[in-house]
Design brief:
Helices cover 44% and strands 21% of the residues. The protein is of the alpha/beta class and 289 residues long.
């Protein structure tokens, strides 16, 4: 495949319009259009829907991840050829996706290691750990922290460790809502803090205990502020051990726990940048094993 054509295809998908892709690549919209048409002719299929925003067709989606991988390998190779001396190379972009609780805890060490090395322009996206692998399948990211142990096609996977969550609440909250003891009936009436609509941690515990009615909920879609809301007595919540290292919160019941096993999935391509990111992430995750 012609690299200019592939680059135009990826740019159109990423930026949503032919004009925006042209500005990003410093060419004319007609040049982008011609490159897309040539690539479609070579592929024997329509690859993008000419809508606003532009969307890849089914055949385009099948090509997209391979196109991104091809460009990454080509850009990294060209970077090495142009500047054999590591200190003279520019940074190479590596988009990854990580769940919010990891970002708020152990993953900060990986960001520090990668950022100070000066080789990688790291772009961290945030999403639920149960769906992060979908971004790998689409080619939107090169690596993901995910709960999915089976490697996505074209990727390798390794276990990072397990984060332990326990039902916790502030002491003032316990005095107000569990003055007669913590049991299933009291839990059914007590307010709960939820991360977002995807968060099944608290609801899953309630269902395991046989609680079927809706719980009074407050949504706080930020890991640090989620724990802050629990500490402030807004509601109880499943808080990771890593976010309550001093045991300041009250453990509602020792059996009300959940473990989330995390895996690192990364493109299986020859890339110094991806290898460096993987090394930093695996090292940072050592604290959760």
């Amino acid at each position: 495949m012609d690299l200019d054509q592939v680059r135009a295809f990826v740019a159109v998908v990423d930026h949503g319009t032919f004009d925006a892709a042209a500005r990003a690549l410093h060419v004319t919209p007609s040049a982008i259009s011609q490159r897309i048409k040539s690539l479609e002719t070579a592929a024997g299929a329509v690859l993008v829907q000419r809508t606003k925003p532009v969307r890849p067709t089914e055949r385009g989606l099948a090509l997209l991840r391979q196109a991104r991988q091809l460009l990454h390998v080509a850009d990294e190779a060209m970077r090495q050829l142009r500047a054999p001396d590591l200190s003279e190379r520019g940074r190479i972009r590596v988009p990854i996706v990580v769940n919010a609780d990891s970002i708020a805890t152990w993953f900060a060490d990986a960001v520090t290691t990668i950022g100070t090395a000066g080789e990688v322009e790291l772009e961290v996206r945030r999403d639920d750990e149960h769906v992060t692998a979908d971004l790998l399948r689409s080619g939107d990211v090169m690596a993901a922290v995910t709960t999915e142990p089976r490697p996505v096609q074209g990727c390798s996977a390794r276990r990072l460790g397990a984060m332990t969550y326990r039902a916790r609440a502030a002491r003032s909250f316990v005095r107000r809502w569990f003055s007669d003891g913590v049991d299933r009936v009291a839990l059914a009436a007590a307010p709960v803090v939820q991360f977002d609509r995807k968060d099944r941690m608290q609801i899953g515990l309630a269902e395991r205990l046989g609680i079927t009615q809706p719980l009074p909920q407050t949504f706080v879609p930020d890991s640090t502020q989620f724990v802050a809301a629990v500490r402030a007595g807004v509601g109880w919540g499943m808080v990771p051990d890593l976010q309550d290292p001093g045991d300041d919160l009250v453990l509602l019941d020792p059996t009300w726990t959940a473990e989330v096993t995390l895996h690192w999935q990364v493109w299986r391509v020859g890339s110094e940048a991806l290898d460096a990111v993987t090394t930093a992430v695996v090292s940072a995750a050592a604290g959760i094993r």
